[in-house]
Amino acid sequence: MRTTMWHAEPTVGVIGRTRQLALVERLLRRRARVVTVTGPPGAGKSAVAAVAASRPGRDVYAERCQLRWEEVQSPEVVRHVSANALRAPDDRTLRRLETVLDTLENRSLLLVLHDCDHLIHGVAELVHAVIGRCPGVDFLVSARQPLHVPGEQLVVLPPLAPAAALALFTAVAEETAPSLPPAARDQALVAEVCERLDRLPLAVELAARSLSDMSLEQLAELVRTSCLTLGAYLPLVHGRPMHHITLANAIGWSHELCTPSQRLLWARLSVFDGGFGTAEAVARCADELLPPAAVADGAAQLLERSLLLPDRPGAGRARYRMPRTVRAYGATMLRYLGEAG
Question: Which of 133, 156, 179 is the last residue in one of the domains?
Fold first, then answer.
C-alpha cells in the first residue's frame, strides 16, 4: 500500500466535474462520515476524490491521509496493512483492528481510500468499525461500487457532458503535442472519438495522448475498430495504477472482480446495442447456466458495479444500457466463449 499525507491529482483530470466536486466538498464540510465516489471504469473517481478532499481546511480536519490499495491482494489483511500505514503500535495483546481504533479514536482525520474495489468487504469492515468508535475520523472512498456501511453518501460520476469531453481532449492533446496540425483540431471528429469512448475521462485522456504518434484520422479509426488498445503504446504515467495504463486494463480490472456468472452475463448482455429491460435480458441471456432469476439479479449487480448504467431513469420499470467501452470488452469475451453469433 502507498500512503501519502497529501497529494491532489492534476486539475486537468477533473475537467467537467465541477458539480460533483462541489457536492463532495459540501458533504465533507458537513462531516458526512462516509462519502463514496463511484462510477464506471475510467470515470475519474480517484481524481475527483483527491481534489475534493484537498479543499476543506484545517477547520474541518486537522489531518488528511490518502491510502492506495492496489498492491494489497487480500481483504483479510486490510486491518493489518491499515495499522502499519497509520503507524499504529504493534501491541500483540490486541487484535490489529483494535490498535487501529485506539490510534484513531481521538484524532480529527479524513482518510481517503483509493483502489480498494478488490478489497471491498475488508475495507467495509474497517470503515464500519472506525465510524462506530472514532467520531473525528471520516472517509472519502473512490470505488466502483458502494461499501454499504451506515450513513454512506454516494456521489455518482456519469459520463462527461459533450462539451466537457471535448475540453478535456483538447487540454490533454495540447499538453501532449503542443504543435498539433490544424487537422488534429477537427471538432466534429474529436466529438465522434469522445462519444465512442462514452465520454469517460480516462478513455478521452488516453485518446488525446495518442496524438503524440498518430493523426486524428488514425485515432478515430482505431477507436471505431479497436478502442480497447488505447494506451498500449504510450509512455507510462508516473504514479498511475497499473489497471489504468490502458483502457483494456481499466475494464479488465472490473472483469477480474466479477463472479463467473456476472462475467458470463456481461458477455451476453454485450449483444444489446442500446437500452434493454429485465424481460429482454432474460429472453436473450437465460439458459441452464444462467436461469432467469440469475439474469435479473445479475443485471442489478452489474448496475451496482457501474458496468451497466440506468437507461431512461424514472421511466418506471428498470432499464439498463451498457457503456460502449464495457460492451466492447464483453463482446471480446463473448467471442472467446464461442457464443458470438
Answer: 156
* Residues 224 and 79 reside in one and the same domain: no
Q: Domain ends where: 156, 176, 203?
A: 156
Domain range for 171 is: 162-245
pLDDT digits (tens, 9 = 90+) for 99-133: 889 889 989 999 999 888 888 999 999 999 999 99
Same domain, 51 and 184: no
Backbone angles phi, psi at 73, to 5 degrees: -110, -20
Q: Distance from first CA to last CA of the chain, Å, rounded? A: 44
The total of structural domains in the chain comes to 3
Does residue 64 belong to any structural domain of this protein? yes
Q: Is residue 251 domain-resident?
A: no
The reported pTM is 0.88
Joined grid coordinates for residue 49: 476524490
Q: Give the separation between CA 41 and CA 243, rounded to whole angstroms.
A: 10
Dihedral sign, Cα of residue 250, residue 15, residue 47, residue 21: negative
Tell which residue, 255, 231, 260, has the closest CA to residue 307: 255
